[in-house]
Amino acid sequence: MQRHSAPSFPPFPLRSPRLAAVLAVVLTVTGCSSISTSSSSRQAKLTALEKPAEVLIDQWGVPHIYAASTYDAFVAQGYMAARDRLWQMDLWRKRGLGEMAADFGASWVDSDKAARAVLFRGDMYREWLAYGSDSKRVAEAFVSGVNAYVAEVRADPALLPEEFKLLGYQPAQWTPEDIVRIRHHGLTLNFTSEVDRAQAFCDGKANGARVDWLRRELVPDVKPQVPDGLNVCGLPGKELKAAYALATASPKFTKDNVKVLAANTTPERLLDLSASTLNVADANTLASYGSNNWTIAPSMTKTGRPILANDPHRAHGAPSLRYISHISAPGMDVIGAGEPFLPGISIGHNGRIAFGLTRFYMDQEDLYVYETFRTNEREYKYQGRWEPMTKVTELIVVKGENAPRKVDNWYTRHGPVLVTTKGRAYALRAAWLDYGMAPYFGSMDYMRAQNFDQFRAAMNRWGAPGENQVYADSSGNIGWIPGGLTPIRNNWDGLMPVPGDGRYEWSGYRNGDELPWEYNPKRGYVVTANENNVPPEHPLYQKGIGYEWSDSARAQRLHGLFEQAAKDGRKLTVADSEAWQTDIVAVPAQRLLKLLAPLESDDGQIAEGLALLKNWNGTMSPGSPAAALYEVWSSATLKKAVSEKLLAPNERAFAKDTSATRMIAVLENPQGWMSPADRDKLLLSSIAPAMQWMQEKQGADALKWSWGTLHQANFVHPLAAVVDDATKQRLNVGAGGVGGSWATPMATSYNPATYQLTSGASFRMVVDVGQWDASRVVNTPGQSGNPSSPHYRDLASTWAEGKYFPLTYSRDAVEKVTKERITLTP
Known about the structure:
By secondary structure, this protein is of the alpha+beta class. Among the domains are: 587-619 and 625-705, Aminohydrolase, alpha-helical knob region (Penicillin amidase (Acylase) alpha subunit, N-terminal domain), CATH 1.10.1400; 712-820, no CATH class. The protein has 24 helices and 32 strands. The strands form six sheets. It has a twelve-stranded mixed β-sheet with strand order 1-2-32-3-4-7-8-9-10-18-19-23. Strands 5, 6, 24, 27, 28, 29, 30 and 31 form an eight-stranded antiparallel β-sheet that branches. Helix 1 crosses helix 5 (135-155), helix 8 packs across helix 9 (208-215) and helix 8 packs antiparallel against helix 10. The radius of gyration is 27 Å and the shape is globular.
C-alpha cells in the first residue's frame, strides 16, 4: 500500500513556544489601619499599574474596583482574585498546563502528559485576534495582577494559603498564554457519550437502538445510526473514558496517595500525589449539570423595566467556582460573576446591558477510530494510504528527580491520540482545540457591548462552550442568542465514534448567523434551561447542532410559570424571579403521581407508601417525608424494576443510567413494552423496597422522614479526604439539608448512592435592569477561598435558604456597605 507524508498544516493547531519572560512585579504592603468604625484600609504597590486604583470590599466580600483605565482595572481584578482564591487558581493552572508532577511527584507524569495533549497548540498571534483587538493586553494586565499577589505571598510566608503549607509547595507565576491555552474547564462531554452509546448498541445486539433509547433521551427523537465501518463491540471503552478523564477531569486527593505536612514536617517528606485518583465521574456528568436563565420584557414587569435572571449550575465544592467582582474604569463599569482564573465578567451587567448564560449543548466533539499499520502503530490509514502521526515531545519536571522526563504525545490530522491498541488508534477531535475556543474568555468582549447589535456581534465570535445568552438593556429590549462553533457533519449524526479513514470529516463550522435567535419576542419573555430550545421550524432543529440536551423538566416548569403569569395578567417582580430560581416543584414527580392516583394495594407496607405519595403534590421540600420516599422510589427501586422488566440480562449494563424521561414515557404509554396491568403491578411492587430502605435509614415512623435529612449540601474541599478531622471541618462547608432535585428549577443533583448534593446553582443573580442597585445575587459557599476568612463560608446558609444580598452598583450604594478599602498605587 502506498504511503504519503502528513499534511504540512494539520487541521488541529500546533504548539507555539511559551513566553520565556514573566511580567516583573514589585509589591509592598503596609499594615492595616482603621479609618472608621465600619471599615478598615490598607495600601499596596503594584508596579504594573499606570495610575492609582481603589478597591472597596463590601460586607459580603465582593470587591468593587475603581481604576483610571481599563487595563489598570484588569490588573486590580487579577490581584484581588489571587488575594481571595490563590490556591484554587494555582491548582487550575497547574492541572491545565500539566505541571502537577513538578510539585507532587512522579505518579502525576501520566496525567501531566494527558493534560498537555489537550492544550491549545496554535499560533498565538491568531489566537489572540480571535477574541478581540485587546484580548492579549487584557490577559497581560490580569496576569500581572495575579503575579503581583504571588510575589507578595512569596515575600511574606505568613500570607501563604493553608493548602500550600499543607502540601509543601509555593504558588507559580503565570503567563498571559496560560489563560487561553488551557481548555479543560468548559468541555461538552460528547466524547464519553459516544463511547457509552456504542457500548449500548453492542450490549443490545439487534435491540441496540432500544437499549440506547432507554438510556438517554435525544431531542429530536432520532434513531442513532452505526457508522459504516465501526465495530461497536471493538472499542476499549473503559480505557477511552479513563484517558479522557486523565486529560480533563479535576484531581482528587486521597489518603492512599498523599500525606499532608504536619507543623514539624519538612517538604522533603511529602509523599506523591497520585494521578490515578483523577475522578473519572467528573468527566461524564452532563446529565447532572444544568442552568437556568430568563429575561422578561417591560410589558410583563411591575416596574415597567426588564428583569434578567441567571443561576448557572455546576459541581459544588469549596471554594466556589464563581467569583463576583465589580470592575469600573472610564468606558467600562461591569459587575457580576466569572471564574476566578479568568479576566472579565461572564454573568452580570455593565450599567447599560445585562447578560446571563446557560449551556447550549451543541456537539463539539467526536471520537475517531483508526486502523494502524501492522508494523508501525504510529501510521494510520487515511483515504487508502498510510499517514504518519505527528509527534510532540515535551519535558516534564518531576519532584525529587534530577532531570526532567521526556514524554511524547501523538496526533492524527483530527487531534490527540488518547488510546492505542493492537491495530487501532483512537483520537479526540474537539472544536475546543481550535482558535478562539478558550472557554468563557470571549465574555470580555460581550461584557462591554452597549446594545443588542454589539452583543450579537460578540456572540458570533464566541467559541466554547456552547452557550445560551439572554439579554436585556435599559432601553427596554430583551433577547436571546446562542453561540459557539458548531461543526458541520454532512454524512453522519455525531452520536457514535466514526472511522478516521477520511469518510467522516467536518466541513468547517457553521456561521453564527445560522443559529436561531430572538429579539423582543411577542410573548414578552425568553427562558432557557439546557433543553433543546431550537424552534422546531428552524432548519437546524432536525440536524446540525446536536441531539443530547439536558432533561426538559426544569424548562417545562419554568415555561409553565411564565405562561400562567401571562394568562393571569400578573406583573412580575424581582422577588418572583428569586422564587422561581428556588422553585422545588418536580414535573416528573407530578407525572408519576397521576399514574399512582387510581391504584390501591392490600399490602400494608405498599398501602402506607402509596398513601404518602398520593397525598403529596410533587414539591421537593426538605422537610417532606413523601419527597424522600419519592426520590428513593423513582430513582432507585422503580428504575431498577423498569430496567429489569424491559431489558434482557445482557442489556442491563446501563440500567442504572436509564433516563427518567424515557422511563416515565414508557409507564405513561406502556403499549409495546408491557400491558397496563403489568405496569400498575410494577409501580406498586417497587414501592415496597423503597419503604424498607427508608425505614432502615430514618425509622419506622414514615411521618418523621424528611428529604433534607437525606439530601445534604456539603461543599467539599479537594483536600478533605487527606487531612485530619479538625482541618476537614475548617475546609469543608456544610449547609445542611436542602430541597429540590435534579428535576426542579432549583437544581440540586445528588450522588445516587448517598443522595448527598453534588451539583446545583453555583451562583444566583436577578437584575433589575435600569434600577441596578435593586439587583440581587448570592454566591456559595462564599467569596473567599481562604478557610480562615469570614467570607469563606458566610454565604452558604444564605444560599441554602434561597436568600440573596444586594448587588450594589452605584458608588453611593457601594460606599454604604463597604467594610474594607485597599488603595493600589503604581
